[in-house]
Amino acid sequence: MKDRNHLSRVNVSHSATIIENGLIDIPMLQLLQADGTPHKDATLPDIDKETALKMYNTMQYVRVLDERMIAAQRQGRISFYLACTGEEASTVGSAAALQDVDMIMSQYREQGTLAYRGYTTEQFMNQMFSNEKEPNKGRQMPIHYGAKELNFMTISSPLGTQIPQASGYAYGQKMAGQEAITICYFGEGAASEGDFHAGLNMAAVLNCPVIFFCRNNGYAISTPAEEQFAGDGIASRGLGYGIKTIRVDGNDIMAVYAATQQARKIALAENCPVLIEAMTYRLAAHSTSDDPTGYRSKDEEEKWREKDPIRRFASWLQQQGWLDEAADQAHVEQTRQEVLTELKRVEKVPVCVIDEIIEDVYDTPPWHLQEQLRELKAHISKYPDAYPKTSGRINNG
Amino acid sequence: MKDRNHLSRVNVSHSATIIENGLIDIPMLQLLQADGTPHKDATLPDIDKETALKMYNTMQYVRVLDERMIAAQRQGRISFYLACTGEEASTVGSAAALQDVDMIMSQYREQGTLAYRGYTTEQFMNQMFSNEKEPNKGRQMPIHYGAKELNFMTISSPLGTQIPQASGYAYGQKMAGQEAITICYFGEGAASEGDFHAGLNMAAVLNCPVIFFCRNNGYAISTPAEEQFAGDGIASRGLGYGIKTIRVDGNDIMAVYAATQQARKIALAENCPVLIEAMTYRLAAHSTSDDPTGYRSKDEEEKWREKDPIRRFASWLQQQGWLDEAADQAHVEQTRQEVLTELKRVEKVPVCVIDEIIEDVYDTPPWHLQEQLRELKAHISKYPDAYPKTSGRINNG
Amino acid sequence: MAKMNLLQAINNALITAMTDDERVMVFGEDVGHFGGVFRATSNLQEKFGRGRCFNTPLTEQGIIGFANGLASQGSVPVAEIQFGDYIFPAFDQIVNETAKWRYRSGGQFSCGTLTIRTPYGGGIAGGHYHSQSPEAYFAHTPGLKIVIPRNPYQAKGLLLASIRDDNPVLFMEPKRLYRASVGEVPEEDYELPLGKAEVVSEGSDITLLAWGAQMEIIEKAAEMAQNDGISCEIIDLRSILPWDVETVCASVMKTGRLLINHEAPLTGGFASEVAATVQERCFLHLESPITRVCGLDTPYPLAHEKEYMPDHLKTYEAIKRCVNF
Amino acid sequence: MAKMNLLQAINNALITAMTDDERVMVFGEDVGHFGGVFRATSNLQEKFGRGRCFNTPLTEQGIIGFANGLASQGSVPVAEIQFGDYIFPAFDQIVNETAKWRYRSGGQFSCGTLTIRTPYGGGIAGGHYHSQSPEAYFAHTPGLKIVIPRNPYQAKGLLLASIRDDNPVLFMEPKRLYRASVGEVPEEDYELPLGKAEVVSEGSDITLLAWGAQMEIIEKAAEMAQNDGISCEIIDLRSILPWDVETVCASVMKTGRLLINHEAPLTGGFASEVAATVQERCFLHLESPITRVCGLDTPYPLAHEKEYMPDHLKTYEAIKRCVNF
Ligand SMILES: Cc1ncc(C[n+]2csc(CCOP(=O)(O)OP(=O)(O)O)c2C)c(N)n1
Ligand SMILES: Cc1ncc(C[n+]2csc(CCOP(=O)(O)OP(=O)(O)O)c2C)c(N)n1
Ligand SMILES: [Mg+2]
Ligand SMILES: [Mg+2]
């Protein structure tokens, strides 16, 4: 047995040194200025026109989707929605830096990531309407997306649970010898959960190739960041876990893209976690159930609206001569139409047949679930009007 | 509503800075050299002879207690024991820096703290023998001490739970306007629990006057610190929470005393938590159920035995001319005797009468517990030989 | 008396308790300035200051750990868990700590002053994680009390009693009644007893037992049954732990039949405890098997919520099966 | 065949599983180099490398969170929780995540490959926090399987079946039998069925049902009863979830009487589910109330452990009360 020495890294001092806030200053990577011009001393990541436009168009897509779905919720067509507005650069920019083989484990505000992976409007609508075409079979509330073929893990509402899970997933990828990593998204609020601590510490100790991507958007529902933590954001915790950490301007898609590319490279090459803290702002209400006027000022929101990540990237693209304003307008218009059309079409798709209620609890339904289903079907058949969503398609065979 | 800006502290940089291990170097406060001589540039805390000797004698007391109780466990007289050996400076030195009004919430290896507060040999024995004289009524295993009159919270086995509890306790002290703090002890292993994260973060945000005292003794049972975390010990986490943090040589009682005094002053004056990481080593087995030869070398242990905290303090006391070797020897001998005498006396004290089995579940036993007790007593009366500890004192009244 | 909905009754009870005893403190996620996502703690911070009503960081295990320590110190914490579905990260703090604190210390210390409030239950299109009814998970834990009100009047009286009871209480609020249930609530201070069921209406053929939001369901089913000439005795259990065996058994001795309804899945739900106890104590009086009308043994599904629920129709059918056994 | 104690049988099963399928990984606190505090994982790290058998940091919620992710990726995690008493920090990960993963994703993803091993139960002077039997806390959770062996032969066969079953399994090991229970165990690979109870011995007057370490207790009580001329049918439930209603009910139909014994506290224990179900399905066959012989409704006390336990004497007395009802 080799001797262990947990003091080997420690230096001795003879007067008490208090380690405290301000001791290190964690800078925030920003490549594009507010007007879209690169900072003079900044080196932009290599990016071709096609990728840049795909990123831009995805941002626009998500912005439009959010607007439409909030409207649909107001009209009572869907029960719930939760917007990404203001955080498109964080979600799309990080997605663009990944490979399709990488697993995405997200919190719930990352539809930009999902759209970039190729989730279609029809898929979004199916999920939002909880219908039978939805692979998750309509079992969860709107916005709990999941798509196995896109390596996008089905979202779960309990906050923070995906963090240690991502460490485990990444460990499995490593053990299976895959050239792939896991990215795990979460908010600065969720980072207060015990699971955050467990997940980051385990990833560091067990050398898991995972990117922890924290969207620090200033709020957890009504709770401002200053009532969430007293340290220097989430980035300052990385040091405590011995995790390489990058803080980035979450409204600067070029910075997010560059940081995530670098993080992915490190995670794969060194088999280790990397923490990214993206500083951004939740421009929308927390969700359609929330009204932010109860806890923050319009003024504050306005200041952030001026930092709109889409506008900043648009300016840069214009400077490259890559953005055709007419095409952009057309794309936005077309997305609006597409969302509307799909929404109208999809809201007529029925929910799953009642037989699905007992599927996927176990790999196959045990006898007691079969019995419960039999009784339920008999009951629905007796009172078809009371269960209109399913009674029309009862198969008592 | 005032505008909030979670970016106000953040500086911008234009090339990615990776924050990583080694960026800050957290020094370890050490005042006495291995031979007990103060470092040249060190300022020792004010300490009078009486206090110093009380500290020294408590260290010796605990060392002897540990030896005797391990022996008693080997002889089958008690079921379990867990020694503080090697960590006397951390536990006694911190206790000496507190006031009696301060609440102590400990893990389980802090009998030094308890002895310093005035817990007597008889009390130790009562607890170890789970008898009716023990205020906890013998309901928990040996070493789960608790003494309300000493402001020492009853110990609970689940690790880390006391950490957020200590934040809450301290918050209550502050709200009640008490000039008192809470100290919370835990091992570097327990610091991996989610409760650690919750407790430290809450204390920082809610301004709780609490000292988090981590005994980093290199092991959690068989798990070495290097498989517990990848950062720079536990101290490096303080920064992430915005908590003032001091690392100290846990085998140097003067350093521990000075650091804890300072921490208490800060906690009270600023209504805030302070984190202390004491670097030390568990010289004994984890507990009497453990055999460390399975996971660490004698050699490694030997290296640490040379850093014996008692010997170091003895040397310093000698240098002050405060230590009378004969008196010291007599004290050790007298402690041995006292422990032996009390042990013999106390092992004859019976356990609580059976009526106590339903007390303290609620403030008063509800009817169903009364019914269960009645049935139990009737049953014991029917089979008195099968329940020898309680059948002799059944009162069916 | 004033007309209040269930949320207003809760808010009123909190104001009453905080006015009466300055050791009472209310905290949890978003409960401070904003007054909670359901607004149960509206205006408390304004009225009583940030020290006594505050936001916590987003950590349920931390909230209850903190509350445990605060309670053991002698303060009177009323901690909110935003949804019953999110109480599980605090399971260890509740089951291993809160509940055992007094016992393990021989009564030297306790968390007796703690009250944990949490909204529970379905029927609001909340799916998997905004619909669960976790009472049975806690009912296996000696040392805890569990209380569930069915309307605003009960809510105020039971919450005040819970806060003042010297035992830790898990107070579960049926969230689909938050705004739907409206009734007269005395403005003055009053308490309703813990551990006591309430016979809501008397009957002779079968006893129907439920709690919280399901009370409406069994009342509706009882009406339907009455049209068939079946007379139902309706009991609101109100306290799940310790529960009122005496009242329930007295009723079953009279009616000879028992139906229990709860939203949580059947297997291991609290109806099983009631059935097990009642069959033992009323064995010779039972004229038909004790029947449980409960959620299916699946997670709580969104699209099939209506089908999943143990509604009045399922209850009505079960009443008939019982009576015609 | 070889003589093994229960620990050796577990160790042997783990070696068998890891040899057979290289996706199997074993981890938890102290399970690596040291082989676990009970030595159930001895030599696995040596045999299979640090990648497949390793220590984790000390965090139960992390261990199960990590295991969930690993399972969803397609690996086959066998996670150890050092004591059943310390499983509660992982309650959220187990109840809200492990159990619901497949359902919420419509079967796209699952934690089916996960097995959680944990020692449980009392009788070892462990007091409050080294004695609990938490099976009922989990039995209210659709999506989980819960399995408990009673001897080395069962342990190996059931553990191998649990690891290979495509559903998450909580495998609870009666720790007071770890070294005390010794028996013949085949060295080759074999599995015993999940969800199936075992009729250990037939009888005609009363059915005795238990699981794990309490099997010894009911067997001893049955012997005593036999001297009084009472013939007991003895059943080992083996799987708590889903449980074998058919076998239990068939037995009760025959004997007309049922006694259930478990160590966990009475209220809300799994015996309540069994009693509730059996009284419904066997109503007309029951000749006396179903009886539960269980732990008291208190935390687990050290000094009064003997008195707390539902031992053979209490069981024997209850058998007589049942038969003479
Ligand atoms: C365990 C748990 N507790 C509470 C909630 C309720 N909840 C949903 S979102 C939210 C705020 C999350 O804030 P943050 O992590 O910062 O993400 P953001 O909404 O800002 O993107 C809360 C408290 C939950 N879903 N899960
Ligand atoms: C929640 C929980 N998990 C596991 C255990 C079992 N256990 C007891 S002590 C221990 C190691 C603790 O190590 P550390 O915190 O470093 O303290 P030390 O023993 O070194 O003083 C473990 C794993 C426990 N008591 N509680
Ligand atoms: Mg946020
Ligand atoms: Mg340690």
From TrEMBL, chains A, B:
Its EC number is 1.2.4.4. The keyword rRNA processing does not apply. The branched-chain alpha-keto dehydrogenase complex catalyzes the overall conversion of alpha-keto acids to acyl-CoA and CO(2). It contains multiple copies of three enzymatic components: branched-chain alpha-keto acid decarboxylase (E1), lipoamide acyltransferase (E2) and lipoamide dehydrogenase (E3). It comes from the Bacteria. The keyword Oxidoreductase applies. Keywords: Oxidoreductase, Thiamine pyrophosphate. It comes from Fluctibacter halophilus. InterPro entries: Alpha-ketoacid_DH_E1_comp, DH_E1, THDP-binding. Its cofactor is thiamine diphosphate. It catalyses: N(6)-[(R)-lipoyl]-L-lysyl-[protein] + 3-methyl-2-oxobutanoate + H(+) = N(6)-[(R)-S(8)-2-methylpropanoyldihydrolipoyl]-L-lysyl-[protein] + CO2. This is 2-oxoisovalerate dehydrogenase subunit alpha. It is an enzyme of class 1 (oxidoreductase). Belongs to the BCKDHA family. Residues 57-350 form the Dehydrogenase E1 component domain. It holds the Pfam family E1_dh.
TrEMBL record, chains C, D:
Coiled coil: none annotated. Pfam families: Transket_pyr, Transketolase_C. Residues 4-180 form the Transketolase-like pyrimidine-binding domain. InterPro entries: THDP-binding (IPR029061), Transketo_C/PFOR_II (IPR009014), Transketolase-like_Pyr-bd (IPR005475), Transketolase_C (IPR033248). Its EC number is 1.2.4.4. Keywords: Oxidoreductase, Thiamine pyrophosphate. This is 3-methyl-2-oxobutanoate dehydrogenase (2-methylpropanoyl-transferring). Its cofactor is thiamine diphosphate.
